[in-house]
Specification:
The chain is an alpha/beta fold. The protein folds into 2 domains: about 160 residues, 3-Layer(aba) Sandwich (Rossmann fold), CATH 3.40.50; about 60 residues, no CATH class. About 35% of the residues lie in helices and about 25% in strands. It has 8 helices and 10 strands. Strands 6-7-8-3-9-10 form a 6-stranded mixed beta sheet, with helices on both faces. The relative contact order is 0.19. The model has no long low-confidence stretch (mean pLDDT about 95).
């Protein structure tokens, strides 16, 4: 895909959660290297938008493309390949608690057709180094702090070298100091790799400390705000 082609492009899309309309007429473009927030009150549709990017919420209106995938009428057999092209980070980490850090990451690589064991091991070493957890490869998740578990989740998202990372409240379960470390890590990945980030958060303090494009979801709509005063005026 051409470097100037948007990585995600939604035009006049309605986002539903089940049978309920949560966002009407969404227009959203994500370019290479973007750092984007989706913010708003609980239940305002932020996570539903992320789920539409991964085809968990099916899209039936307007224009909807993620990478090479047209989401309008996407075939079921294409969805695993769509999801493989994205990195996803969850609030609750979603690690396999009965496996070591290395085994968690190896599970993903084996599931995405990495056949060669030596190549898998090398890739795991690379991503753990990138998130600062080289010494934790043989630890079980319960032996890690919340911040370390989230770093493993970020390493997992990086495994297949995605151009886009979707992070759903990635600091929601973390204290302020740990939050800063995770946001610093996401920002450095964004800048060094030009990996585009879409971060769902209701923590408006992050918007000023780690500036990016900001979309506000409210009243069944989601639109980009462009001035610092609009960010200051947000009240969730």
């Amino acid at each position: 895909m051409d470097d100037n082609t948007p990585l995600i492009e939604f035009s006049h899309v309605d986002i539903n959660n089940g049978d309920s309309l949560v966002i009407a007429d969404l227009n959203f473009v994500l370019n290479r290297g973007d750092f984007v927030y989706l913010t708003g009150r609980v239940g305002s549709g932020k996570t539903s938008i992320l789920r539409s990017f991964t085809a968990e919420n099916r899209v039936n209106t307007g224009k909807a493309r993620v990478g090479e995938f047209n989401l309008i009428g996407i075939k079921r057999k294409q969805i695993p390949y769509l999801r493989r092209s994205l990195g996803v980070v969850f609030q609750d980490f979603q690690l396999l608690m009965d496996r070591t850090v290395e085994e968690n990451l190896d599970f993903v690589l084996r599931s995405t057709d990495w056949k060669d064991k030596a190549e898998r091991k090398a890739r795991i070493s690379e991503v753990l180094s990138e998130v600062g957890l080289t010494s934790k490869a043989h630890k079980m998740p319960h032996q890690l702090s919340g911040g370390e578990q989230q770093r493993v989740a970020i390493a997992r998202a990086l495994l297949n070298k995605p151009e886009v990372i979707l992070a759903d409240e990635p600091t929601g379960n973390l204290d302020n100091e740990t939050t800063a470390g995770i946001m610093d890590l996401l920002r450095s990945i964004n800048r060094e790799r030009e990996t585009a980030m879409v971060i769902v958060t209701h923590n408006t303090a992050l918007l000023s400390k780690y500036p990016g494009r900001v979309f506000v979801c409210q009243n069944n709509s989601c639109h980009e705000i462009v001035t610092e005063q609009e960010i200051i005026d947000l009240d969730f």
